Amino acid sequence: MVAQSTTKRFEELLEKHQLKKTTARLNVLSTMYGKKSATSQPELESVLQDIDRVTLYRILNVFEEKGIIHKVFDLNGTANYAVCSSGCEEHHHHDEHLHFNCKVCKSVFCLNDMSLPNIKLPAGFRAEGFTLYASGLCPSCSSKKA
Questions:
Q1: Has 105 been labeled as part of a binding site?
Q2: Residue 138 assigned ligand-binding role
């Protein structure tokens, strides 16, 4: 069961983005905030069995539009979703951080604290965002291999 203070925080987040406080939305937020890595819709479906596929799809879409979560792709091209930083806004994500794909467990991690290089584009190009990926072994899989 989700702690009452956590539920209150999620309700305030939904209010901030002018979204109805439904049980399904609160459960999706609770599940996503409880994960250390990004998660795919099929993974969420397996955990949140009381939410049908279409409802979950709509929740993920509206959360992404509102800047609550962002989409990141794994090594197989599958969309995964991760909680955004507090700097994200509706239709304008600030998820320009390193995304790490583990080749063993297939998890996708947002490495928010990494310093990224300043990217200077050629004249005429205007970036509205970028994604940087790295792949290898996550700490858990590295320790199992050692």
A1: yes
A2: yes
Query: Is residue 141 a known part of a binding site?
Result: yes
Q: Annotation-wise, does 88 bind a ligand? A: no
Architecture of the domain made up of 4-145:
Orthogonal Bundle (1.10)
Known binding residue 92? Answer is: yes
Domain regions of the chain by residue span: 4-145
Over the stretch 32-83, which tens digit does the pLDDT of each residue have?
Answer: 999 999 999 999 999 999 999 999 999 999 999 998 999 989 989 999 999 8
CB-CB contact of 123 with 95 (8 Å): no
Count of residues in the chain: 146
How would you write 76-91 as a 3-class SS string? CCCEEEEECCCCCECC
